[in-house]
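Minutes, project check-in
Item: structure for the 363-residue chain
Input as provided by the requester:
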Amino acid sequence: MPPKTPEDPEQNPYDLLEISQEATEAEIRTAYRTRSLKVHPDRNRNDPNAAQKFHALTTASTLLLDPLRRLALDAQLRLQVAKKQRFASYDNKRKAMVSELEEREKEFKKARMAKEQERTARESENMRIREEGRRMREQREKELELQELERQCARTKPESNGIVEEEPPAPPPPSDLDTTIRIKYALSSYPALSTASALAAHLRRYGEIDEGTVVMSQKVKKSKKSKGLVDGEMIVTALVPFNQLGAAFAVVSSAESLKERGMDVAWAGGSEPPILGWLRERGELRGPAANRAEPLPTKLTPEGTTFGSFPSSFPALDDVAPPLPPAAKTGIDYESLTLLRMREAERARLEKEILEAEATEGG
């Protein structure tokens, strides 16, 4: 490899050996021996650069003793001398332009190297991201395979004994009208039931009722005869919310006997609450007509209505707690005030439903 020959004189082999370009081979060898003895590391133990200097002398002498490489070196040195001479003949303006061009070339090379380094770093980052994505994908696939294996084990485990276990159906969500019934009767048939409190007291034998949320509407019958009602009669429509579902179910179960006495009873939502069907499927709810191997305990009301059994969560008709006496009531606290506002909102909603239903029937 030819040595570097910049303008620095220390890099010039002739200058290192202190000879001219016209020196012969013998002069080169003599100069090398003389210079190497001066800079040899064994004679310059205190000089840390002695080995480097000795190596530079050896390289310079080897280059100059090679005729072909020396010929190339001489040509390069002549070009450098010519360039110096040509540059010296330039005026200041041309010197500035040449210097500027050289600086631009250096900056361009530096920018190109920086861009290459940036491209290499970007490729390395992309490769790292791809490798990380591949690793995460493989981990996710393993997790999915494990989950699928667990599901298969869970499906095959109940079938190991030849019995397939079915999950019980989930209970339906509760509704605001689950414990509310709709009652309709002629006021002439029940003149004493002209107020909400009187109607609540009449139905309290089925279960506890919150009188504050009973909604009652009275309207004169103007349409054609329907359901045993006569034109001009005062018809009462009421929505009665019970505190527990068992009480409301007991009233609806007595709908046929109550209808014979001029009182129509139905669920406020228009159909049976879904929770009753769920309880019936579980065998925890039986109506009055349910068949049993042994008789069910029943209770006879003053009107002679007989009720069937209810789930254990339903209230027993004999265990209904009597209302608290006025002396036991305390002042209205925050919880009571909140409950009162909720009842007022429920009452307003029920009144709106009654008015809409009456408007539909009247139309």
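Outcome recorded: Residues 122 and 128 are 10 Å apart (CA to CA).
No further action items on this chain.
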